[in-house]
Amino acid sequence: MGRHFLQIPGPSPEPDAVLRAISATTIDHRGPEFQQLGLRVLEAVKPVFGTTNPVIIYSSSGTGAWEGALANTLSPGDQVLFYETGHFASLWVEMASRLGLKPEVIDSDWRHGVDAEAIGARLEQDTDHTIKAVCCVHNETSTGVTSDIRAVREAIDRAGHPALLMVDTISGLGSADYRHDEWGVDVTIAGSQKGLMLPPGLGFNAVSDKAIEASRRGGAARSYWDWEPILAANERGFWPTTPSTNLLFGLEVALQMFAEEGLENVLARHQRHAAATRAAVNAWGLEVLCLDEPYHSPVLTAVLMPEGHDADAFRALVLDRFDMSLGAGLGRLAGTVFRIGHLGWINDLTLMGALAGVQMGLRLSGVPVAGDGVAAAMTVLEEGAGA
Amino acid sequence: MGRHFLQIPGPSPEPDAVLRAISATTIDHRGPEFQQLGLRVLEAVKPVFGTTNPVIIYSSSGTGAWEGALANTLSPGDQVLFYETGHFASLWVEMASRLGLKPEVIDSDWRHGVDAEAIGARLEQDTDHTIKAVCCVHNETSTGVTSDIRAVREAIDRAGHPALLMVDTISGLGSADYRHDEWGVDVTIAGSQKGLMLPPGLGFNAVSDKAIEASRRGGAARSYWDWEPILAANERGFWPTTPSTNLLFGLEVALQMFAEEGLENVLARHQRHAAATRAAVNAWGLEVLCLDEPYHSPVLTAVLMPEGHDADAFRALVLDRFDMSLGAGLGRLAGTVFRIGHLGWINDLTLMGALAGVQMGLRLSGVPVAGDGVAAAMTVLEEGAGA
Amino acid sequence: MGRHFLQIPGPSPEPDAVLRAISATTIDHRGPEFQQLGLRVLEAVKPVFGTTNPVIIYSSSGTGAWEGALANTLSPGDQVLFYETGHFASLWVEMASRLGLKPEVIDSDWRHGVDAEAIGARLEQDTDHTIKAVCCVHNETSTGVTSDIRAVREAIDRAGHPALLMVDTISGLGSADYRHDEWGVDVTIAGSQKGLMLPPGLGFNAVSDKAIEASRRGGAARSYWDWEPILAANERGFWPTTPSTNLLFGLEVALQMFAEEGLENVLARHQRHAAATRAAVNAWGLEVLCLDEPYHSPVLTAVLMPEGHDADAFRALVLDRFDMSLGAGLGRLAGTVFRIGHLGWINDLTLMGALAGVQMGLRLSGVPVAGDGVAAAMTVLEEGAGA
Amino acid sequence: MGRHFLQIPGPSPEPDAVLRAISATTIDHRGPEFQQLGLRVLEAVKPVFGTTNPVIIYSSSGTGAWEGALANTLSPGDQVLFYETGHFASLWVEMASRLGLKPEVIDSDWRHGVDAEAIGARLEQDTDHTIKAVCCVHNETSTGVTSDIRAVREAIDRAGHPALLMVDTISGLGSADYRHDEWGVDVTIAGSQKGLMLPPGLGFNAVSDKAIEASRRGGAARSYWDWEPILAANERGFWPTTPSTNLLFGLEVALQMFAEEGLENVLARHQRHAAATRAAVNAWGLEVLCLDEPYHSPVLTAVLMPEGHDADAFRALVLDRFDMSLGAGLGRLAGTVFRIGHLGWINDLTLMGALAGVQMGLRLSGVPVAGDGVAAAMTVLEEGAGA
Fold first, then answer.
1. Shortest Cα distance from C285 to chain D (angstroms)?
2. Which chains touch B (3 or more CB pairs under 8 A)?
3. Contact A252, A21 (CB under 8 A)
4. Contacts with A242 from chain D: Cβ below 8 Å
5. Residues of chain A contacting residue C16, judged by C-beta atoms under 8 Å apart
6. What are the residue boundaries of the Aminotransferase class V domain, all occurrences included (chains A, B, C, D) (predicted)?
7. Are C381 and C272 in contact (CB under 8 A)?
8. Does the beta-carbon distance from A20 to C23 stay under 8 Å?
């Protein structure tokens, strides 16, 4: 009974208007109506990335967009510097290995954002520029920590290093402040099923001129992911292969909603919900995984379970009793962390319902709860409510 | 952003499956596919009313179904005994007057259910049986008080009075225990937009054999509301005029959901949500309008605003800041009462979101709030959650 | 497989955009969002009726709107002059009788429109003005014949008779030219499920000042149908009882589609489809029921079955073999007539599919078919296609 | 006005039930509800391919599934034998080149199916087995010609050659007879937006044991397309990356529709529509592109424009005047061919509407039309209609 509470950090609950839009009959992807749709969507998507350059839209998951970024710019054997902020960063490293690249990884405790200094230091050592790209995750979905991408760019520049900067903001885009052009990112990777509030099925690559040049000079053997035919077809509003037309219907609606609310307001809303959620976690006496104060994710909050309590058993109880999905701990955090998503088509009261569900679930699971997190969250939300 | 919290006592939030069903293209209401639909729906609706007799389905609001009940069984000039439990009872009286009936009203303080003894006493006086019908509201939507309909029937029978018993359970059906046959009701009036979780547009009359006989013997001049041609056409699954086919699509889905959950579970769920809501109101130090302990409505809770505070200003703030609709005080309760609906396609966490919205709204409105109602509600919901 | 061909003269196939609109969650019918919707819809509906006066919208079928027209303006015992153009006119007469009015009927052969002269002649005889209203059907759904309403008004005026003019354009509105104000109609009756391309569930009364005055002075005992409280509430965008909100969502979309296409284009489109259909019927060597050349309905075409062939058996075969619903012969036309609807969300190719289905069905039914009606229809449609 | 006629050879019109299914809110792709969905869909999809082996489902277009087939089984430098039946076969060759394979192409006139003898002859010459795979298109979407895949397998076997057999049935699956296991295909490539009647966004690889072995032994550097992690996750109903959940919702519904209708009936229906379409083309005096009598596609019919007439101008006129999309001539057929799709959620009358649109469009374009193709098509459809 009632709407399921989908409080994982993506896929996120979609607006009804988006869902209705994707339920229209598919149109001819070679016809004039599609062409106008294509041109509108390709233009309207740019501001969300903070770019005036093209944005490639793949029929794929976000993972596919990772592969697109790597395949277009790097050749087998190329060395790539990754910063492992969490599980998804580690999966991207694994992909790079499988694709024949040579990933080098700066490890971390999975509780902080990217250490731009460490990246800079490594690049300074790389005097013959064997490192071809630096890859970071902007909003690490497994930990709820964001990273200072501008600082990474500055560190690369300070090192005078020509490496490309590639950033995964799959779960950040449309929820956390992001500026592809201003921050000097070369390839930005995103997906449809997070802040864009669409079903999964679209992957994105926002590309700098430098990235496009790199793709023209080299990259891996590639076809599906190849930017060139897509960019060429996109100029007239088309795709070289059959696009996910129905998701593009939805994307147009979602982008209109962004434009109406105003991107700044969208970001402020996420920050507010994140602050309320952290207030709840603190009141419960639980520990937020992120230790990096300015880098708490506005998209999700990862919470450490107290010793002796299994996060997955807790999540199963919450699902069973309260019909709410929470995110699991991933990789080395499995069983010890649960994640509360606060993105997508939700509002203050949805969030309060979700936090009430967490609080009741904790108590029913026998987890010691220090105080009333729901009350603490309300205190945060009362300020500036509806402003 | 996010789904609106529709916490009025109806129309209630519809299940997605119901909304999808009503969005199918209308079919030929004279064809075999419709016929099968008609037969299925007319049969499946009976258990919700607790009847094995026919249920008439009008294309109308619930108000229309009031008129159907009166027009089929009573003739202009007939005397009818009403018990005024609240605003909707008073509107029904007004309708009776407009239709040329002679309503006699037993007044009340709008904070208790029907006093069956008072009805019995009045009927005993009516030795020449000028009173043709007794009309009561089962779940008074304006006050959040239910009434003991079985007791009313018993009082009528004890008085040895032949009056028909007509009961409005527009906002009770599908949420509060109701038994047309067992309680000896002659005409039960209901609507689609409350516990049945459909959009407004269908009105219902469940009818006893005695009521049908009365309609054959007399009643007012009537056409649209006339049971006879409807009952005749319904036998083969049809309607004499164009039915609201798309709402019947939705009704079938809603009734399937009832059958799957089990009517007893549906009723228990409403009771649980009502108990949690009252716990919140009590904790806030506010007064529930209903003073009749066993007759708190499982559908809605009406709350008295403290002196000096305007319920409508509070509701406007809640709508503006938290995108939640609450019910207004009606009639003599205007401005002094607000109503929280807890019916329709909601669950524990929806209710917690709603109560959090009320609590935040009260504080932001400057209403003195004694304690944490949200916490009190969670205590109720933790017990038997998901059971 | 495939979309059902719903080629009855209503309910008509709804636009996808309308169906999506009605599938939105119902909103608070007492809140500000509804108020704006109400004000917009009540204004936007007027041009389709050709009026600047109010239009009452009931939660009811079109039949209910008949009752609304009669109940507000006429008192039991009032004499009313009906012109029986077909089955629906006869049903309206039957309703009048049931409601205690005294209908007087000018009969016809059901193959022509209203004979305004006959009405005028009758009114001239009625020197003491016992006839209170003249009731006609503008587009007789059972016969496919329209009537010259302007001529009826002129005949009434020439007779210097004060009778109200009430017109049923349930199946004409939005498809056939109609001008409430210009033609001097007092009450126009319509429904949602025909030219307005909505599901059934809304009934309409467009009202002249004279009709409103009549309703204030008299009319029958009434409540649900009473214009006065509706007009009063409508002034602020509301309804006195719970309106069919979801159908109002759809009505707004349908009216926007009308505004975009332009009412003149809408009417021309129906005329074109009707002409193509008649060309097909003529080519088949079958007889169109309507014998009144200028009054062929743009909404539907009724076709006489040749002797010895059962129209209902033919319709059943078409439904079974080609998944198309055609309209039955009604009343005295049962079994001898079938009706092809050409209204609602259809286009040239839908119509061609429908006519092909009729032609194949005729042949498979063993009905002698003189020539290729489909080819004849194409010849009509080729002219001005897409213009 | 009215539903667009989408008569391209895919994307095809989706059933309303499919569109409603994909408009449900996305669920947690790591939760138990998804798991059950995954297990059901992965099992239910097998019969459509005629396999009991696993079917990999990608979030991608059909083109992505081509890449999946190649990347898992072939290593850069591997020689692959392609048979160019048309434009899509040539695009697949181009992909193979881009991915570093060495395609060898047996050319054709694009008007016949695969010449299995020619493939056998080539393989017999390849005594050292440098050819690693034979790639064919089962239903060539650009030409409307199918191929005898069983004969190709037999030719490979007669040559005693170990090459893998990879078959693209992107536009054939669910419309044309296909038997992955029985015909000994190693990798079958398909997509969602054709016979499966879904929006684009899913790519499929049905895989033989031999293909899986080949992928374990070798293949290209790969990640997104890698079968192994998908097969492993699929065993429990999950995917390693975020799947296109909403399309899986739709896929389940489409597969249920297949099961209800029966795959044989589905195939017969397509054959019947194809026969009716060819009868129309012949009657018009136009030439069907396919010259291979038993290999006319049941999915689409490609038609040659007479000299001096531009197929694209004709298609533009049909779109403008009759709101119907037809397929363009592709590659070397551009401008000289148009294609009529007869797949997806259509029925006899939809097809008749489409053929009427083509016939009227031809006449309005000034193309000499010998006879009445619409009449000819009706003659075909009358036989066995609805059987």
1. 17
2. A, C, D
3. yes
4. 10-11, 61-63, 191, 193, 200
5. 24-25
6. 20-312
7. yes
8. yes
B195 — pLDDT class (breaks 50, 70, 90): very high
Reading the block at residue D271, the tokens are 């054959």
D-chain residues near A3 (CB < 8 A): 25
Name every chain C residue with its beta carbon within 8 A of the beta carbon of D360: 348, 378, 381-382, 385
Residue B171: burial class (beta carbons within 10 Å; 0-12, 13-18, 19+): buried
3-state secondary structure of A301: strand
Using alpha carbons, list the distances in angstroms from residue B269 to A148, B175, B190.
48, 9, 20
pLDDT tens string A250-271: 999 999 999 999 999 999 999 9
Q: How far, CA to CA in Å, does D299 sit from each of D92, D296, D329?
A: 20, 9, 16
Is the pLDDT confidence value at B386 over 60?
Answer: no
Cβ-based burial of B289 (10 A; exposed 0-12, middle 13-18, buried ≥19): buried
Q: Is the CATH number 3.40.50.1820 carried by domain C5-10+262-382?
A: no
Question: Which CA distances in Å does C370 have to B142, C284, C300, C363?
Answer: 67, 5, 22, 10
Q: CB distance from C347 to chain D under 8 Å? A: yes
Tell me the binding residues of D. 339
Tell me what pLDDT residue D383 has. 87
d(CA D110, CA D113): 8
The tokens describing B330, both together, are: 């009606």
Q: How far is A84 from chain B (nearest CA, A)?
A: 34
Across the interface, do B246 and C62 touch by the CB < 8 Å criterion? no
Q: Which of C3, C20, C345 to mutate: most A Cβ within 10 Å?
A: C20
Q: Is it the case that residue A387 has pLDDT exceeding 80?
A: no
Per-residue confidence (pLDDT) for residue A383, from 0 to 100 = 87
Do D16-259 and D5-10+263-382 fall under one CATH topology? no
Q: What percentage of chain C reaches a pLDDT higher than 70?
A: 99
**What pTM, to 2 d.p., does this model score?**
0.97
| Both tokens assigned to B337 | 């009462």
B237, B36 in Cβ contact below 8 A? yes
- How does pLDDT run across A162-202, given as a tens digit for each residue? 999 999 999 999 999 999 999 999 999 999 999 999 999 99
User: Hey, what CATH class is D16-259 in?
Assistant: alpha beta
Is residue C23 less than 8 Å (CB to CB) from chain A? yes
Indicate whether this complex's ipTM tops 0.95: yes
Q: To the nearest whole angstrom, how far is the Cα of B28 from the nearest Cα of chain D?
A: 17
Tokens representing D114? 């695969």
A70 in helix, strand or coil? helix
Question: Closest residue of D to B21, CA-based?
Answer: D20
Chain D residues close to A22, C-beta within 8 Å: 22-23, 199, 246
Q: What residues contact A238, with CB distance under 8 A and at least 6 apart?
A: A29, A30, A34, A35, A38
Q: What are the structural domain ranges in chain B?
A: 5-10+263-382, 16-259
- Range 189-228 of D in CB contact (< 8 A) with A: 191, 193, 199-201, 220-224, 226
- Among candidates B12, B23, B30 on the partner chain, residue whose Cβ is nearest the Cβ of C22: B23
Summarised one tens digit per residue, pLDDT across range D155-211 is 999 999 999 999 999 999 999 999 999 999 999 999 999 999 999 999 999 999 999
- Distance from C-alpha of C263 to C-alpha of D328, rounded to nearest angstrom: 35
Q: How far is A80 from chain B (nearest CA, A)?
A: 40
Q: What is the CATH number of domain B5-10+263-382?
A: 3.90.1150.10
3-class DSSP assignment, residue D239: coil
| Chain A touched by B352 (CB under 8 Å) | yes
Burial of D109 (0-12, 13-18, 19+ CB in 10 A): exposed
**What residue type is A160 in one-letter code?**
G
CB proximity C269 to D under 8 Å = yes
